[in-house]
Amino acid sequence: MIEVRNIVKEYGNLRVLxxxxxxxxxxxxTSFIGPNGAGKSTLLSIISRLIDKDxxxxxxxxxxxxxxxxxxxxxxxxxxxxxxxxNIRLTVRDLVSFGRFPxxxxxxxxxxxxxVDEAIEYxxxxxxxxxYLDQLSGGQxxxxxxxxxxxxxxxxxxxDEPLNNLDIKHSVEIMRILRRLVxxxxxxxxxxxxxxxxxxxxxxxxxxxxxxxIIERGGAKDILRxxxxxxxxxxxxxxxxxxxxxxxxxx
Length: 251
Fold this sequence. Notes:
Layout: E1 2-11, E2 14-24, E3 29-33, H1 40-47, E4 55-60, E5 63-64, H2 70-74, E6 77-80, H3 92-97, H4 101-104, H5 110-122, H6 138-152, E7 156-160, H7 168-185, E8 188-192, H8 196-202, E9 205-210, E10 213-218, H9 220-223, H10 226-233, E11 237-242, E12 245-250
Parallel strand pairs: 3-8, 3-9, 6-7, 7-8
Antiparallel strand pairs: 1-2, 1-4, 4-5, 9-10, 11-12
Helix pairs in contact: 5-6
């Protein structure tokens, strides 16, 4: 379990996170939703120790975040940020192999390559594993980055807007894969996502943030309420049930 206690983060006079506390259960998909500037990505980065907090504590399986050795933490938590840009020309297979760095320090063993191959197969990239990243579509490239995270073989996978710039087909493929990672491999997935309906259909838990605070948390039926979403997004919503999923229409 990941536990966040009274987290505060400020940039100058702007308080981006204001006394945020949260428990994230293992073996589930937890989605962070909310408007731009709500603090979603900042919270994700603090949990992964990419950025420092100004106050509060984060515990990973009962151990305070600062007490984790960097190499051991990289075997426990992996994160994929919203904007991925590598300046060197890499093939898909080269990129995925980077996920094994916490274990191999760049000298991959036969076991490391086994994890690389499994991740490539899992993301259905075998037929393009020797292509360069700049030859791929946006959806293929995103799948390659997620394969790198899978190869890292961490219990917790943090993804910052993994559907960014993807079309509907590729977005559905990514969400189905994340659901499989939880259901088949027992991973814990935490995502920042803007599409409320994807969050509703694929998440076990949804956390709503606004103005640096947690406004509400719960399952889709708890969160997809017209009054709540109207208050958070300042927009009219119509909520309906389709195939046992809560779906919202906004216009």
